[in-house]
Amino acid sequence: MRGKGWWLVACAVLGVLMALLGLALGSVAVPVGDLWEALNGKGHGAAVVIVRHIRLPGVITAAAAGAGLAAAGLLMQTVFHNPLAGPGVLGISGGASLGVALVMLARPLWATLPWPVELLVAAAALAGAFAVLLLIMAADRRVGDPVALLILGLMVGYLCTALVGVLQAAGEANALKGFVLWGLGSFAGMELHRLAWIVVPVIIGLAGALVLVKPMNTLLLGDETARSMGVDVPRVRRTAIAITGLLAGVITAFCGPVAFLGLAVPHVARALLRSADHRLLMPGTILLGAVVALACDLIVRLAPNGTSLPLNAVTSLMGAPVVLWVLLSGRKWNRR
Fold this sequence. Notes:
mainly alpha
């Protein structure tokens, strides 16, 4: 494990480099000198506005979202012993989408409230995500079977998708366009004074994921072996589900349903580290998730001819081949 610590350092350095590129590059390039002055608060003019008020919130949001989704994906893959499990496997992302659809497509529900639309959308997404999370937690106490819980989560997700489809069919054109744009995902749009709304919950969730590294290692041996070693498997599973719900719910609320990061990044981290030890794998997955999200955000903003690529299109183009590669070479990595 000690010999692989260099990989974590390299990943952290790459993350800092990607963040700096994200601050400097875009439709308007910011010179290095102006970038440094803007970050120090000593600059003035357009560079300060571009860097501090537009790009810096997006870079921080991307890093937080990528790290959170990657950690949640690793937790779900370990808890359910399923390489295709991810943050959306329990229907939490579907619940968040349903909450947003109720706000954006069913206007009479919120049109008379004196709150900003952005706040209502975020609150509705969180409410939908945590409603599904509470349902899953209650079902876990009643059923106690991880396979049945996985199927239940998938069914809840399908039900939420069906209800969203009904709302889309009945929604107005402008409201439908806004919901479709939200569904494409984006790390932009966060303001500097609102960053704590996403950063603080993600930090709490990541801290909880790091605390679980020891029981996660035990779960790799199987639930029965973990019980024989004194691990309270149902409690660990519920804790991991709660952390996943927090991370997926908050990130979906502010960034939309970002695809493939939570599913693909843990597999890439395993392949690069050649290890299933969560003491190394969890921090490696968190760092790699932040790096990949920053890279996707940079690709979105560097689209040619001034076009704006959908974030989910970029994450899917990067993530889908990774998942296919994992499925085709999984036995090889398992043997290693």
